[in-house]
Amino acid sequence: MEAKKGEIASNKNAKKANLLDHHSIKHILDESVTEIVKGKGYPEDVSMSNIRLLIGTIIIIIALFAQFYNKKFPENRNFLIGCIILYIVFNGILQLIIYTKEKNAILFTYPPTGSFHTTGLVITSKLPRFSDMYTLIIASADPESISAKPPVEFTKSVTQWFTKEGVLVEGLFWKDVENLINKYAEETKKSK
């Protein structure tokens, strides 16, 4: 009876994915990577997310002004044209930030506390459609920095980390990710 309670408790904490949905698999793996990197002492840098939220809020405010402006249509034509132009411009800025800065990044970090590095990490992942090969890349958040190191990556089949029922075998995955983080740290020591 006690063993069954332990199994039930561990099953509730288990991360389960639909093996037929690559978005579900990638989401669980990315979520686990975030936990691992934060657990290694890298605080999350949410400034990029905050900038995106600010621009999104501005876009919503512009849309609300256009919708609820006091005057009716023929009289507010110029105001609506201005709102439409601003809406397009801010959406373009938002898309430009996402395309140039974020790309496939799942996590931006600051340097670890007490570290001499001046740059954090950018963690990027890829799981192409109709493929089981998951790629994880760790790179410097500021590649132009003096303390920037070459990126490290691994590509492995997701079938190594999931059971037939779709439960993530966290121990194996954590080991692979921690090895990659350690490899990045070693690259840092080698390049000095």
Automatic annotation (TrEMBL):
GO terms for biological process: protein targeting to ER; signal peptide processing. Keywords: Endoplasmic reticulum, Membrane, Transmembrane, Transmembrane helix. One of its GO terms (molecular function) is peptidase activity. It is found in: Endoplasmic reticulum membrane. The chain crosses the membrane at residues 51-70, 79-99. GO terms for cellular component: signal peptidase complex. This is Signal peptidase complex subunit 2. The keyword Membrane applies. It comes from Fraxinus pennsylvanica. It is a multi-pass membrane protein. InterPro entries: Spc2/SPCS2. It holds the Pfam family SPC25. The keyword Transmembrane helix applies. Belongs to the SPCS2 family. Component of the signal peptidase complex (SPC) which catalyzes the cleavage of N-terminal signal sequences from nascent proteins as they are translocated into the lumen of the endoplasmic reticulum. Enhances the enzymatic activity of SPC and facilitates the interactions between different components of the translocation site.
